[in-house]
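Summary of Year 1 activities. Much of the first year was spent building the evaluation harness for sequence design. The harness presents a backbone, in tokenized form, and records the residue chosen at every position. We chose the following record to illustrate the format because it has been used consistently in internal testing since the harness was completed.
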């Protein structure tokens, strides 16, 4: 069995990332989950957050929006509304978006249909800030 698998991150606008990696961690709807080569095939939902991957000593981070992950033994495809490398993120815009989403969520019941999209915006802004501040890559 191979020690690596292909990780592909795709948005409606582009293919952001396609590379062989050793492992990946993503924000699932039921919590964070990890993938290694040979993973049991599954399709699952994703929430906005930080996707991390590792290839040797290289650790990468990408901010992703909500979407889906299709996992096979040899490939993981991430299909999301948004995905950005740290170099594409404007920190001041992300911080403004976080404040706006947080303000808009105040006083709205979590069961209100308007709450879900606001929470998505909040989580994506939070992920963008984290990726920008920590950097897209660490270690080499």
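For this record, the design step produced the sequence shown next.
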């Amino acid at each position: 069995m191979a020690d690596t698998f292909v990780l592909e991150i795709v948005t409606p606008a582009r293919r952001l990332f396609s590379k062989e990696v050793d492992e990946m961690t993503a924000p699932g709807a039921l919590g964070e989950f990890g993938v290694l080569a040979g993973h049991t095939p599954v399709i699952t939902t994703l929430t906005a957050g930080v996707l991390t991957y590792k290839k040797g000593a290289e650790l990468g981070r990408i901010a992703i929006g909500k979407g889906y992950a299709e996992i096979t033994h040899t490939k993981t495809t991430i299909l999301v509304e948004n995905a950005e490398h740290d170099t594409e993120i404007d920190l001041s815009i992300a911080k403004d978006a976080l404040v706006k989403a947080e303000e808009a969520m105040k006083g709205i019941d979590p069961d209100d249909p308007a709450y879900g999209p606001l929470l998505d915006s909040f989580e994506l802004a939070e992920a963008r800030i984290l990726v920008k501040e920590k950097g897209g890559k660490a270690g080499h």
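The longest strand covers residues 15-21. Quantitative recovery figures across the full test set are reported in Table 2.
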